[in-house]
Design goal:
Strand 4 and strand 5 form a beta hairpin. A 6-stranded antiparallel sheet has the order 1-2-3-4-5-6, with no helix packed on it. 0% of the residues lie in helices and 51% in strands. The chain is an all-beta fold.
Length: 103
Amino acid sequence: MNDGRGGNYSNADRLPQGSALAFQTIGALASERWVFTVQDAEVVMLPTGPVNAIHLTRETGGEQDEMLDLWLSPETGYLPLRIRISNSSGSFMEQEWRATKNP
């Protein structure tokens, strides 16, 4: 994982609560830089059991914009364990990691 300034993170201690991480994203019509804020570390309950995770949030400026939550796990090489996209009405879509299959 990159801190947006060229530094790589190899452990969770380098992601203190309140710090910001920037990611370049590419959509169908544009490329944007998304900034996420590190929240408290959490234990995420998955079908395979509990996994330690770092919770990141991205709030956008507009009232109609969506909020994005990511839970990344140092134990799995920072794979996203859970992704939640929610809107101002309270509805959301969530994806959850179930397993990793080796090729």
